Amino acid sequence: MVAVAPTLVERYVRPGKLRIVFRAVLNHGELSNRASEAAACAGRQGQFWAMHALLFERQRELSSPGGIVDLLLGFARELPLNQAAFRQCLTRHETLAALEAADAEQRRRGITVQPVFEIGTRRIFGVQPVEAMTQAIELELPD
Asked: What is the pTM of this model?
């Protein structure tokens, strides 16, 4: 999604034709939970997509041994965040209950992997080229 998002945002989100909603699926254990929490905590300060992009770009670092919390706090220092508020949110798991509830809802809907794109009544599984996403969006947009 990170690769195609800028094109979709310019073409459809900015003109008000489409909105992008992210719903977490916690399917990779503790690392998934902590990364999702970091994005949600950054989101409290309007930096969800910036943290999401950073997590995606640096995902190899997330799987390396070591302290995941310290790594995520390091990522946060690269963003314009209130660091104390972010640290508190992350270390006190302030967003975890909401993320777990969202994950449970996704699973009830049959979604257990990411990414899944819901465009109108269609579900598209997996990363797709911008052309495929554009085609699916255009089929669902009203004339």
From this structure: 0.87
